[in-house]
Amino acid sequence: MEYTDAPTQTQEVSWDTKQCPYCGTTLPKNATSCTNCDWTLEATKPAEPKASDAMAILLSIIPGLGHIYKGHRVMGAFILFLITPTAIFFAILAAIASAGWGILMLIPYWGAVMLHVWAVKDLVPPTPDTGEQY
Ligand SMILES: [Zn+2]
To answer: Cα(19) to centroid of ligand 1, in Å?
Structure first.
């Protein structure tokens, strides 16, 4: 059996090249666009999380505002003017009855509102880019 240290052809090809995710063309590893199709590095970057989600959660410091921000005006107003005052009312009652500890009831409530505003569908239509349609 003869030992050979000649590098295999396939390894050498894949060492500093990559394949275009669209058409499979072999490209240099640092290529940012394809020579054969319109693929660019930008096109396959993972979509960034929508800013509106983070903003909605931030606004939910005041429960309901985040929902209004995301376009759920009725639900937001409902949370802001009805559910939150009720929750605070009962938390204060519980706090009086439990030497203050009852106020902690509001923490899971806030958490639930923030979780919900994150999960809820964004009803605000995406801003038109240039208005070319008009
Ligand atoms: Zn390509």
So the answer is: 8
